[in-house]
Design a protein that fits this description.
This protein is an alpha/beta fold and about 290 residues long. Helices cover about 30% and strands about 25% of the residues. Strands 5-4-3-10-11-13-12-14 form an 8-stranded mixed beta sheet, with helices on one face. Strands 6-9-7-8 form a 4-stranded mixed beta sheet, with no helix packed on it. This is Methyltransferase FkbM domain-containing protein.
C-alpha cells in the first residue's frame, strides 16, 4: 500500500522525444543526429564521452579515403564518426528498423554527409527474409534482434523481449554487399555477430578488413573466435576491464593495428584470441598461443 501511494505521488517520468541534436565534442563534433531526450546515452554522445577508447582507435586506424561499413547503426554515432574520419571515402550503414533508418538519413542530410549511404536492411549469415523483433514505444530500442539468432541473454532482455513487436525484413550477407571494399567494419547486432561474420569468409580472406565487434557475453565471443581464427584473425582487447566487448579483430599480419592500439591505450596490446596453430614466436606482442588463459 505504501509503495502504491508513493508511486501515485511521484512525478511522472518526462516523455522522451526525438529531435536533431548537434554533437559538441569528440571526434564526431559538428555532426547532427536525431537523438532522444532526456537520455543519458544522448548526453554521452553529444559530449564526446561515448565509447572514448573505441572512438580514438577508429580515429587512428582510418585514413581519409578509406571505406567503412556500419552493421547495426542504431542512432548513428559510429556512422557519423566514420563519416568525419573518411571525408574522401564512404560509409555504408545497415539497419533493418525503419525508424532508425529514417532518423539516420535525416541526420546525415542535415550534416551534409553525402558520402554516407544508409540501407534499410539487416546483415546476417544468409540472405533473404528474416523476422526482426523490436522494442515498442517506451522500451530500449537498441535491443532489436533477428529472431533466428535469439537475441542477447541479459536480465533486461528477458524483461523486455516478451513485449517486442515483429516484422519481416530483408537481410544480406557481408559477402553479398555491393559497396566499396571496407577498411573497417563495425558490427553490433544483438546476438547475430558470429552469424554475420560467417557470411563474410570471402571478404575476410581477400580484403582483410579490420572488424570491430560488440559481443554480449563470453559464449558469443567464443563463437566469433571459432569463426575468425580459421581466417588467421586475432582479437585485440580495447579495454583492460572488458573481456568481450568491444573487440577489434584484425588479420594476424596487421602490425599497424596493434601499434595503434598500444598508442591509444598506453599499454601493451592484449590478444584475447588467436589461431591455435600460432606460437608466440610467430606473432608480435606478448600474447601466448591459443586463447588467452584466465
Amino acid at each position: 500500500m505504501v509503495r502504491g501511494v508513493r508511486e501515485m505521488l511521484a512525478e511522472p517520468e518526462p516523455e522522451v522525444q526525438f529531435g536533431p541534436v548537434q554533437l559538441t565534442d569528440g571526434p564526431a563534433a559538428g555532426v547532427t543526429l536525431i537523438l532522444p531526450r532526456p537520455s543519458e546515452l544522448t548526453e554521452l554522445i553529444v559530449n564526446g564521452a561515448y565509447e572514448p577508447t573505441t572512438s580514438l582507435v577508429m580515429a587512428q586506424l582510418l585514413a581519409p579515403d578509406d571505406h567503412c561499413w556500419d552493421i547495426g547503426s542504431h542512432y548513428g554515432y559510429f556512422t557519423s564518426l566514420m563519416a568525419k574520419l573518411v571525408p574522401q571515402g564512404s560509409v555504408n550503414a545497415f539497419d533493418p528498423l525503419p525508424a532508425h533508418v529514417d532518423r539516420l538519413r535525416q541526420g546525415m542530410a542535415t550534416s551534409g554527409l553525402d558520402h554516407v549511404h544508409v540501407h534499410q536492411q539487416g546483415v546476417a549469415g544468409q540472405s533473404g527474409e528474416m523476422v526482426l523483433r523490436f522494442a515498442q514505444d517506451g522500451q530500449d530500442d537498441s535491443m532489436a534482434y533477428l529472431e533466428d539468432y535469439g537475441g542477447v541473454k541479459t536480465p533486461l532482455a528477458d524483461q523486455n523481449y516478451p513485449d517486442f513487436g515483429a516484422q519481416s525484413v530483408p537481410v544480406v550477407t557481408l559477402d553479398e554487399i555491393d559497396a566499396a571494399v571496407p577498411a573497417l567494419i563495425k558490427i553490433d547486432a544483438e546476438g547475430a555477430e558470429a552469424a554475420i561474420l560467417s557470411g563474410g569468409v570471402n571478404l575476410f580472406r581477400t580484403a582483410r578488413p579490420r572488424v570491430l565487434v560488440e559481443t554480449h557475453g563470453v559464449g558469443e565471443a567464443l563463437q566469433c573466435a571459432n569463426q575468425m581464427q580459421t581466417l588467421d584473425y586475432i582479437a585485440l582487447a580495447l579495454s583492460p576491464t572488458k573481456e568481450t566487448l568491444p573487440v577489434l579483430w584484425v588479420h594476424n599480419q596487421d602490425q599497424q593495428a596493434r601499434e595503434c592500439l598500444e598508442t591509444v591505450t598506453e599499454s601493451p596490446v592484449r590478444i584475447l584470441f588467436q589461431p591455435e596453430r600460432l606460437t608466440a614466436g610467430e606473432t608480435s606482442g606478448d600474447a601466448t598461443a591459443g586463447r588467452e588463459q584466465g
